[in-house]
């Protein structure tokens, strides 16, 4: 028994030697005769020998057991059919033991599923051959069972007929799927006949057509699946009220769904117009009106498989005549790509993480991948080629192959993978006749699945191991499906070399690019032609890479801009050997690059100037932002190698460009959160200022022909730079301060002031000279007297000004002051100078509080750009950055002298220090933080997407979708969700601002 594959040999011995089987002679330890030997051998070949033996013992113990035992010995086909069924399905074995008369169906030589219709009709005592009335005859007796129980038993009998021949290898997958779909149709007709008998008045007052959808419509049904349908109804007579007919038809449809659900499987009508919330039954005109005005693309994709299956078949054909033209023009819809992407996303999003690796249907490389890609090809090309307008998956694949849309080898490989996956799905469903698509995770069940599919142990391991390796192979093939079938023909359409596969015409290629979401398909084709032209190795590698690139670009918000940028990067690197090799060998790099280029113009613009930076995408460790000291050292070393000051400035900006790309890459691939981005950008700016100042100082000294300038110089960071809250588009707000050195420095003060001014101007030019790099604009408008004041002041001059003339707004601005570059001692002295001013002992005078509120009111009223929406302006809008920062700064000015935690240049630490001191409720601090973070992130996202520093969050369009992607929303989010989330956060923050900032004294 062990040698034959029985897992429980003791139980197996007990069953084969005892009654009622008596297959084994204990005395001789051998089968009792040759017939018994053949039965035991067949049991050993079953998917689960123990299960088959146990069920067989139960079946032979019934009133028909003697006949079953006789037929097993005499009929090889019957033996295989019965024992393989018993070894593969617990549910069907139990059914046969309960209804042994169903075994007779396994003795029939001819398999004719059409005969099942009469058997099902006889079981429920109805004539289902009249498609309109279905009640013209009720001659058969129902017997002791009611109609539903009779239909359930008859349906299971028919399942046994199909499954037995399937498991015995007599039917191909396509035949099994067609038989199951036809059987479903017969059950629907029988159920409708029973419903009409229950509701004779309703049956006599309407025409009702049942339209099969999904796998039932495509005649490719599983053993256990919902049966998707749509109902169409019309009055029986032309003068009959439509409302009355719809009421009757709805009652009939609901009764049919209930009867079939109790007897066989759930009837799912949720693919109807408006889904579960829509009317169950509609007239033909109502269906037409809905699909013309309101239907989404996914609904037309579902209608690819629609066919009349029960009820009034003429009405069903009329329905198809109306709907089909709309199905085959769906790819021309403006929202085609958006809807297709949404469908793809929903498939993946609904898979629980715990089972995604066991999914035969929905997981990567699963059945849905095959079906979805082929349907997409049908929708795109079926407009012009009617041969592609077929319902079932394998016939569709054959039509696409014959039409030249899929290569013959690819079609063969794909069909093999699809048959394997569908067969596996059938086998796991047969065990207990439950709807499942999961590969079992216990060894015994997995071994049963493998054996049920004909796998046996070999040198690679047991049957389950062999099956698993085969599954992995097919899944890999399917995973290549999308790029192989949908993208690669585009390259062959523009290539100038012979191709073995299909070749799209330029018009077909343009249509396919349109379907993928390219707004300028002609331009995209030109890019493809330029990238793949010729016989060079570079062109050959591009032809291999571009399917992946195109696939990922199609999922990005702006495929056209992404493809242009990819071409520019490719052209910039020319024949650089590592570039294409990196993309080819590091799959993650190609995917990351495409998605980044299709999302961020900011990155695309810089990457064209620094294409070597994309090597960082191959290693997450390379995407970690570098610290200030490391960056500054690298910049200084590179700058000192340059003899020309302009060259030194150029090399510093080039290194800054690479570091900006590092930060942007990290953010766009999800490795950096918003806080880390702000710190990284601030440290990069500090390093750039430090290196640039050192270079500018050396250059000025050389120009003046002195060994060293006679004064110390420091940059004081202000604003977002001072708060270490820098964004991609932020200017660098600074103050310039100098201090003469050594004895007699006072007499040389005028010269030093002039030279310090020259140094500051030189520094500003170095960083802001127009170029293709993002500038770092040094903004000194927060200096004493603003734009009218001296650009550079000495430390003593600052002290005198602040002692005599300083206004409260200057104290407020100095809250964010921080030494960032130059002489550390001078920077420290400056901070010591301003601390009493910005952290005043005793807080603010009432007049100063009033002045701050007045200035804030003026800012709100005058500085918001004309036409800007105050609800979505990230800086000056209600609840935006300015609101939150001014509130934090007012608390600092009033209480920082007493609360040490408030003495910080950064906004969020100040807010939470206020909360810890009881100056602000924790929930209010959280509301302000949420709004400030979201506004900062949105501002950065706008810069990344548009390569333009803007504060206005768009409320619709492609830009908003791209911004949502940067913010972490799913692909193609509902644009309203992004705006709603932003307005909700800022609305809550504004309420806090009004209660804190404008709090009565």
Account of the 3D structure:
The protein has 1001 residues and is mainly alpha-helical. The chain has five domains: 169-327, Beta Polymerase, domain 2 (2-Layer Sandwich); 330-481, Up-down Bundle (Four Helix Bundle (Hemerythrin (Met), subunit A)); 487-598; 620-838, Beta Polymerase, domain 2, CATH 3.30.460.10; 846-996, Nucleotidyltransferases  domain 2 (Four Helix Bundle (Hemerythrin (Met), subunit A), Up-down Bundle). 59% of the residues lie in helices and 5% in strands. The chain contains 44 helices and twelve strands. Strands 3, 4, 5, 6 and 7 form a five-stranded mixed beta sheet that branches. The longest helix has 31 residues, at 674-704.
- Helix coverage percent: 55-70%
Enumerate the spans where pLDDT stays under 50 for 5 or more consecutive residues.
Answer: 133-144, 493-502, 744-748
Specify the structural class. Answer: mainly alpha
According to CATH, the homologous superfamily of the largest domain is Beta Polymerase, domain 2
Total count of domains? 5
Count of β-strands: 12
Mean pLDDT: 87
Rg, rounded, reads 38 Å
Assign the CATH architecture of the largest domain: 2-Layer Sandwich
In the CATH scheme, the class of the largest domain would be Alpha Beta
Inertia-based shape: elongated
CATH fold category name of the largest domain: Beta Polymerase, domain 2
Q: How much β-strand is present in the residues?
A: 5-15%
- Give the N-terminus to C-terminus distance in angstroms: 93 Å
Domain PII-uridylyltransferase/Glutamine-synthetase adenylyltransferase: 354-486, 873-996
Family: Belongs to the GlnE family.
Protein name: Bifunctional glutamine synthetase adenylyltransferase/adenylyl-removing enzyme
Region (Adenylyl removase): 1-490
């Amino acid at each position: 028994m062990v040698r034959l594959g029985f897992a429980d040999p003791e139980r197996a011995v007990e069953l084969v030697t005892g009654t009622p089987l008596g297959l084994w002679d204990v005395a001789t330890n051998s089968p009792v005769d040759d017939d018994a030997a053949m039965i035991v051998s067949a049991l050993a070949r079953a998917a689960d020998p123990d299960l088959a033996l146990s069920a067989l013992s139960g079946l032979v113990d019934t009133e028909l057991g003697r006949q079953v035992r006789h037929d097993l010995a005499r009929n090889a086909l019957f033996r295989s059919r019965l024992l393989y069924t018993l070894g593969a399905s617990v549910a069907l074995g139990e059914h046969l033991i309960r209804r042994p008369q169903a075994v007779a169906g396994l003795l029939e030589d001819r398999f004719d599923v059409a005969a099942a219709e009469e058997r099902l009709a006889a079981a429920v005592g109805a004539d289902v051959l009249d498609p309109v009335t279905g009640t013209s005859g009720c001659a058969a007796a129902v017997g002791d069972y009611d109609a539903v129980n009779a239909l359930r038993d008859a349906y299971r009998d028919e399942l046994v007929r199909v499954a037995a021949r399937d498991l015995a290898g007599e039917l191909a997958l396509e035949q099994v799927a067609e038989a199951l779909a036809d059987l479903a149709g017969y059950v629907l007709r029988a159920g409708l006949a029973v419903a009409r008998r229950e509701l004779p008045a309703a049956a006599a007052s309407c025409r009702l057509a049942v339209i099969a959808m999904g796998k039932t419509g495509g005649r490719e049904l599983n053993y256990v699946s919902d049966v998707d349908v749509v109902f169409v109804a019309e009055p029986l007579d032309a003068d009959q009220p439509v409302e009355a007919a719809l009421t009757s038809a709805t009652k009939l449809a609901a009764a049919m769904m209930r009867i079939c659900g109790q007897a066989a499987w759930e009837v799912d009508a949720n693919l109807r117009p408006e889904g579960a919330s829509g009317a169950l039954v509609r007239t033909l005109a109502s269906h037409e009106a809905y699909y013309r005005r309101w239907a989404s693309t996914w609904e037309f994709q579902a209608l690819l498989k629609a066919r009349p299956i029960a009820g009034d078949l003429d009405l069903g054909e009329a329905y198809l005549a109306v709907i089909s033209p709309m199905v085959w023009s769906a790819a021309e819809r403006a929202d085609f790509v958006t809807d297709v992407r949404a469908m793809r996303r929903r498939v993946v999003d609904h898979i629980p993480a715990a089972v995604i690796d066991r999914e035969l249907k929905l997981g990567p490389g699963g059945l849905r991948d095959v079906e979805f890609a082929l349907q997409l090809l049908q929708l795109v090309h079926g407009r012009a080629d009617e041969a592609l307008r077929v319902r079932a998956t394998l016939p569709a694949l054959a039509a696409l192959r014959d039409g030249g849309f899929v290569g013959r080898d690819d079609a063969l490989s794909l069909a093999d993978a699809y048959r394997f996956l569908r067969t596996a799905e059938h086998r796991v469903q047969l065990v207990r006749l439950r709807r499942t698509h999961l590969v079992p995770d216990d060894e015994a069940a997995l071994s049963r699945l493998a054996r049920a599919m004909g796998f046996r142990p070999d040198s690679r391991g047991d049957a389950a191991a062999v099956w698993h390796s085969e599954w992995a192979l097919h899944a890999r093939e399917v995973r290549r499906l999308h790029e192989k079938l949908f993208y690669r023909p585009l390259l062959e359409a523009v290539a100038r070399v012979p191709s073995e596969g299909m070749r799209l015409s330029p018009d077909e290629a343009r249509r396919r690019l349109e379907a993928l979401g390219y707004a300028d398909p002609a331009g995209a084709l030109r890019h493809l032609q330029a990238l793949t032209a010729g016989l060079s190795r570079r062109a050959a590698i591009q032809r291999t890479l571009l399917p992946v690139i195109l696939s990922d670009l199609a999922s990005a918000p702006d495929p056209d801009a992404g493809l242009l940028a990819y071409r520019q990067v490719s052209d910039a690197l020319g024949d650089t050997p590592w570039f294409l090799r990196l993309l080819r060998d590091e799959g993650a790099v190609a995917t990351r690059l495409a998605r980044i280029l299709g999302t961020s113009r900011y990155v695309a613009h810089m990457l064209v100037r620094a294409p070597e930076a994309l090597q960082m995408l191959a290693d997450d460790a390379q995407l970690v932002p570098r610290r200030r000291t490391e960056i500054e050292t690298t910049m200084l070393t590179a700058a000192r190698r340059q003899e020309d000051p302009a060259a030194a400035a150029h090399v510093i900006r080039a290194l800054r460009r690479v570091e900006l790309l590092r930060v942007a890459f990290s953010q766009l691939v999800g490795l950096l959160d918003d806080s880390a981005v702000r710190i990284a950008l601030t440290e990069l700016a500090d390093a750039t200022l430090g290196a640039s100042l050192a270079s500018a100082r050396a250059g000025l000294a050389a120009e003046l022909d002195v060994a060293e300038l006679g004064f110390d110089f420091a940059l004081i960071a202000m604003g977002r730079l001072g708060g270490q809250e820098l964004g991609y588009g932020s200017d660098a707000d600074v103050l310039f301060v100098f201090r003469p050195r050594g004895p007699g420095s006072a007499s040389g003060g005028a010269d030093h002031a002039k030279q310090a001014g020259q140094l500051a101007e030189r520094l500003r030019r170095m960083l802001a000279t127009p170029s293709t790099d993002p500038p770092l604009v040094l903004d000194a408008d927060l200096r004493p007297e603003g734009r009218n004041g001296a650009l550079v002041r000495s430390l003593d001059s600052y002290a005198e000004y602040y002692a005599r003339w300083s206004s409260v707004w200057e104290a407020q601005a100095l809250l964010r002051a921080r030494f960032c570059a130059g002489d550390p001692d001078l920077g420290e002295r400056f901070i010591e100078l301003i601390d009493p001013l910005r952290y005043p002992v005793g807080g603010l005078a009432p007049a100063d509080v009033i002045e701050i509120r007045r200035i804030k009111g003026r800012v709100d009223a005058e500085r918001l750009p004309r036409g800007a929406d105050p609800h979505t302006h990230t800086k000056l809008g209600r609840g935006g950055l300015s609101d939150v920062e001014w509130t934090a700064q007012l608390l600092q000015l009033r209480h920082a002298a007493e609360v040490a935690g408030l003495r910080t240049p950064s906004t969020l630490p100040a807010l939470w220090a206020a909360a810890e001191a009881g100056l602000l409720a924790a929930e209010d601090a959280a509301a302000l933080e949420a709004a400030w973070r979201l506004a900062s992130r949105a501002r950065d996202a706008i810069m990344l997407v548009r390569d333009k520093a803007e504060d206005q969050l768009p409320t619709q369009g492609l830009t908003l979708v791209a911004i949502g992607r940067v913010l972490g929303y799913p692909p193609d989010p509902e644009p309203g969700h992004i705006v709603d989330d932003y307005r909700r956060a800022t609305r809550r923050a504004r309420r806090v601002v009004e209660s804190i900032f404008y709090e009565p004294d």
